[in-house]
Every structure is written in C-alpha cells, then in structure tokens.
Design brief:
276 residues; mainly beta; 9-stranded mixed beta sheet; 6-stranded mixed beta sheet; 3 helices; 10% helix
C-alpha cells in the first residue's frame, strides 16, 4: 500500500475556482436541496482540530472511531452512527444519526440533552424518513436493506445512508451498507462531494463491490471507515489507487469547503481519535 503522508500543518491541493449555489436560510420556507447539481473545481484542504470555530462556508469532519464522525459547520454539529461515545470532552451535538445493523453503530440510551436523535432503521410505522433543517445544516436519509442478523434473508430498510448538506457541500455517510444502491436510491442520494465508506471487506460488502459503489458516486473526497485492523483498508487503497489519489493525513480531522475540493478524486485516510 502506497500513500502520501500530509504535513501536520497544511495540505495543499490546488485547482480551479468553483461556482456554487448559495443556501440562504429562510425561516419562512424550507431550504431546498442542492445535492442534485454537478460540483466543479477545487483548491485546498486544511486539516484542523475539531474544537475551534468553523467558518460558515466550511465543514469540519472529525473521525471519532469505527463509523462515527463529528461534522461541524456554522455553529451546528452532528455525529454519525452515534454509540454514545465521542471522546472525553463534554459537548452535545445538535443531531446524531444511528444505524442498528450492529451494536457498534447505535445506542439505546443517547444523552437526553441531544435535541435530535435520528434512527436510520424501519419501525412498525414504516421506513425511516428524515429531513431535518438546522439552518446551517440539512440532514436527510435514504433507506437501504441489510442482511438479517439471524441469517434468514434481508431486513428491508434496516440501514440509512445519511446525507448532510452544509456549506454548499453534500456529505454522505453510507452507514452499514450491505448492497449497492439501486437507481432510485442513487437518484435520491444525489451528488456527494464527500463520502464516508465502510471498507471492512465483508461485514458490510466485499471491497470489490464497495469499490464499485465509490466509483459510481464519483465523489471528490472519499473517507474510509469501519476498517478494523487495517488489512481491508490496504486492500481498498490498493484497489482504488490507479483511479484515486490516496492521502494518509495522519490526523483525525480536516476542514473542507466547496472551493477547496481536490481536482482529482482523493481518498483521505483519517486516523480515529475521540474529541478531547
């Protein structure tokens, strides 16, 4: 496995400027999705610690552990596949998302201070359906099926791909994805500038199958997750290295904006670390 290690202070990926639609919060009407248009161009990605202020047009992504990421922008924060653990710091995200294919992707006892807890699996009421507008961040989901934990077929709508629209970016977290999305699901997801992808090699999907999903999204930044000891991560990076730039950041966080997405599709390897 070969990949570039970033300097600790700065990663510079220079490219052309971009034109983007502005999302302007309006208390009187729902913020429209912007993830169904094509993104263009890019400039540079600046790694930073999660705890400092994030500009309105930037998104900070921090890899906590396993499949949990903290996402911050414009004073709003979210945590994906929330297990109850985010690190030693006592802070309360505005929203957490969860999937329950395995116990390492959810908690039955989320902190009661969290104002928005979004479950990604179907209940007796039907498939999970979320479209949460926080002003600086829009959170929505696309349900997918998962294999039954008892080996007797599939659980319909047992997982959700959560999409976070913030700072003009469309950020997708695939959760515990067990199958390639169908055409309707790809259409519902829309454009993903950044995608968090499980690369465990079997608990979700084989690396070869997940690689095809990644190619289909054509995201500017791919962040591997759910890679355990790292052997499946190496297989994934080797599989994708001919088509994607591979960058080992050596850090848990990076700041991204629509203006600084890399010109060539890039796999950014973050190192998990709790927020302390």
């Amino acid at each position: 496995m070969r990949f570039t290690i970033l300097p600790a202070l700065l990663l510079s990926l220079l490219a052309a400027p971009v034109l983007a639609q502005e999302r302007i919060p309006n208390a009187q009407e729902r913020i429209p999705s912007h993830c169904f248009a094509v993104a263009q161009g890019i400039a540079r990605v600046m790694p930073a610690s999660f705890g400092t202020d994030v500009a309105q047009d930037q998104v900070r992504i921090h890899y906590i552990d396993h499949a949990s990421f903290a996402i911050a922008t414009g004073g709003k924060t979210a945590v994906t596949d929330f297990t109850g653990y985010t690190g030693m710091a006592d802070w309360v995200p505005d929203v957490v998302t969860m999937n329950n294919a395995h116990s390492t992707h959810w908690t039955a006892n989320p902190d009661p201070r969290i104002p928005n807890v979004l479950q990604g699996w179907a209940t007796e009421a039907g498939p999970a359906q979320h479209e949460l507008d926080l002003g600086a961040m829009l959170v929505r989901n696309v349900p997918t099926d998962v294999r039954s934990r008892w080996g007797d077929g599939a659980r319909e709508n047992g997982n959700s791909i959560f999409v976070f629209e913030a700072g003009g970016l469309c950020i997708g977290h695939l959760g515990h994805l067990h199958h390639a999305p169908d055409e309707a699901q790809y259409a519902s997801i829309g454009r993903l500038d950044v995608v968090m992808v499980p690369v465990d090699g079997g608990y979700t999907m084989a690396v070869s199958e997940m690689s095809e999903v990644v190619r289909r999204f054509r995201s500017s930044i791919v962040i591997p997750m759910h890679w355990f000891s790292g052997s499946s991560l190496r297989v994934f990076l080797d599989t994708m290295s001919a088509e994607f730039e591979v960058v080992g950041t050596g850090m848990p966080s990076l700041d991204v904006s629509l203006r600084n997405l890399p010109g060539r599709p890039t796999i950014m390897v973050l190192m998990p670390e709790g927020i302390n």
